[in-house]
Design brief:
single chain; 278 residues; alpha/beta; 2 domains; 8-stranded mixed beta barrel
């Protein structure tokens, strides 16, 4: 790996940062019953929520924090011998010069022998992007080095379709605000159906976030989603790689089969009724 020694002046190391670590939550491919990726989620050392850490991030330390999260996630993933993709959130406004600001990422990957093509970087809609052109440059730099790009929390943030129009990531994660209760909410169903169709046409993979029930998972699978993240499959685990909850994949497949049988039975009954009226 060729590591450029240039440094962005913003990437200072003399700023105070909260003491943090990473929890990991799996993203599951329900067709193969395998973990597609683990998302690294910041947590305070000693317990607590992400907010306990993020509330201490400001303009003075956001650059160092963004770098620190990348290094911490890669180092822990390598230590845990992660073989799936590692998904890391990044702050687009904390990257001044993409080629320079990625150097610590490259160095951490090289030091720990973690392959760059196993890295997926998520930009969240929840942070307003000051400069779309700048974000395009960041994504291009990631892709140039073989890394995967993703839009996180799609449907619940600042940019929505505008962000997707300006650049097309490899992966789009549909926010839980849209996936929650999709099995009983006709409006959310139609919105997600349209998003999935759009992504299919743009050759973008879809991940459904925040899935908590079998019914939600089955409905989303019927719409074409096969990658899932949520408490139904596993909760985040601090400095550990949690497995998929026992029996959940089998329950999803069993419910799918039951729905198919019910529909086939309904179609047969309807055909007989139509035949009787003929």
């Amino acid at each position: 790996m060729n590591v450029n020694k240039n440094r962005c002046n913003a990437c200072r190391t003399d700023v105070a940062l909260p003491d943090f670590t990473m929890a990991f939550q799996p993203i599951v491919d329900i067709d193969t019953a395998a973990v597609y990726a683990f998302e690294a989620l910041v947590r305070p050392v000693g317990g607590g929520s992400a907010y306990d850490v993020l509330s201490q991030i400001n303009e003075e330390n956001r650059y160092a924090f963004d770098q620190g999260c990348r290094v911490k996630a890669i180092t822990l993933a390598a230590h845990l011998e992660m073989s799936a993709l590692l998904s890391i959130n990044f702050l687009p406004n904390a990257v001044y010069q993409p080629a320079a600001c990625l150097q610590k990422t490259f160095e951490a990957a090289e030091r720990t022998h973690f392959p760059l093509h196993h890295l997926m970087f998520e930009v969240t809609e929840n942070e307003p992007t000051r400069d779309i052109g700048h974000l395009q440059n960041i994504f291009q730099e990631y892709k140039r080095h073989g890394m995967i790009t993703a839009i996180d929390d799609f449907g619940a943030g600042h940019s929505g379709l505008n962000m997707l129009a300006d650049f097309q990531p490899d992966v789009l994660k549909i926010d839980m605000a849209l996936t929650r209760a999709i099995s009983t909410d006709a409006v959310r169903y139609q919105i997600v159906h349209a998003i999935i169709g759009l992504c299919r046409n743009l050759n973008i993979s879809v991940i459904a976030e925040g899935v908590e029930t079998i019914e939600e998972a089955v409905t989303l699978r019927e719409l074409g989603v096969r990658l899932f993240q949520g408490y139904l499959f596993a909760r985040p685990a601090i400095e550990q790689l949690p497995g998929i909850a026992a029996g959940v994949i089998d329950s999803i497949h069993a419910t799918q089969e039951t729905r198919l049988l019910e529909r086939a039975s309904f179609a047969a009954d309807d055909a007989r009724r139509q035949s009787g009226h003929a």
